[in-house]
Each structure stands twice: as C-alpha cells, then as structure tokens.
C-alpha cells in the first residue's frame, strides 16, 4: 500500500500531540508529577520520531524534501511538513532539557541557565505547535475532489485520534484522570457520529465501503476496550498497568486500521 507510510506518520504524530497536550495540562493542575510528565513526553517524542521516519518513506526522492518548503503558507502539505519539524524540534528540546545533567552542562560550559519557568514555556510552545500540526493534517485531506473526504467527518475523526489514541497512551503512562476523560469523550463522539458517517460514505463511495469491514471492526473493538479501561480507571480509581499498556497498544493498532480505511476510500469522480 503506497499510503502506508502516511498511515503511520499521521496516527503516531496525532497520538504524540494528544499525549503531550494531556501531560502538560495534567502537570499544570497537579495531577501528575514532573517525572511522569517527562516520561509521557519522552514516549511521545519517540512515537513521533518513528512516525516521521516511516512517513519519509512516502517520498520517492527524499533528497527533494526541501522542495516542500517552497509551498509554505500556500500548500497544506508544506505547512504540515514544516509544522511537524517545528513541533518535533521543540518537543525534543522539552524532553532533553528535563534532564538536570544537561542543564548543569549548559550552565557551566555555556553560561545558559534553563529555569523551570523557561522549561514550562518551552513545553507550552511545543504543545501549541503540536496542535497546529494536528490542524494542518486536517487541511491536507479536506479535498473537494475526493468525495469520501469532502466532509466535516474527516476533520472530526482526525482530531478524535488526538483525543482517543493520545488519551489512552497518556492514561497508561500516568495521566489517569485526564487521559480517561479524553478517551471517554472521544469514544462517545466517535460512536455517536458513526451512523451518520457510514451513511455518508455509503452515499458517496458505495463500491468501496464493504471492502473496509475488517478494518472498521478492528477500530471499533480497540476503541471499546479503551473505553472500558478508561471507565474502570475513572470510576474505580484502580489501574492495572499491563492492561493499560496493552489497551494503549491495541488503540494505536485500531487507529492504524481506521486510517488504512480512510486512505482506501480515496477515489476521484470522473
């Protein structure tokens, strides 16, 4: 599948954005410790790096990647690539500067003092850049020439990946309350809009809908498990880490299956 690199790039990227956003808010309101926030941010950066590495395989000639910069502000895809780089750079710095030893080296050798306030601002900028990157993805796929994509459902479901997949991963890594809430709200919206979305697709691309059944069931199964785990954590105040990590991995798998479906619905009317 030619679009498979984009599947990983968008899903892992949006998941990372959701994780950092929830960790940042949870840290501000005192729901998680600095160590927990650093751990969530670190995993988010790793996921994003993996997504970018796989996404780069989509380019036939990687050495021409810089040509994408020429379309900045005009091309949604150029905006997406630039924002992904800015977000990754800022997120990486956020994680790196969480290490006290690196701060000491910067202070002793370069006379640069990284205060907790400065680090907090850097983390906040990374979160904002992440949200901008997630928004840019929705702009790439709002195409009037592709009937199955030309709908508000496209943007909605892309944002739901940030909430559900990012929320489940943040939940597994310590941001229990906010992560659980993100999963519950996201899953509720996804289930509530499922009938309308399927009716829309059946009207626009009926010849492609039935071929995606396996992928949709995989996504719905993963989301149901994530919802059950989130409700359990929120209501029972209990968490079994192996189950939460398994649920997070399953949710990412479900999102990948759903995104494969999304790209399989690409079809241009003649």
TrEMBL record:
Keyword presence, Thylakoid: no
Transmembrane segments: 6-30, 42-61, 81-100, 121-144, 156-173, 180-202, 214-235, 242-266
Domain of life from the UniProt record: Bacteria
GO BP terms in the entry: anaerobic electron transport chain
One GO CC term on file: dimethyl sulfoxide reductase complex
Alphabetic keyword roster: Membrane, Transmembrane, Transmembrane helix
A Pfam family it matches: DmsC
Protein name: Dimethyl sulfoxide reductase anchor subunit
Naturally occurring in which organism (per UniProt): Vibrio metschnikovii
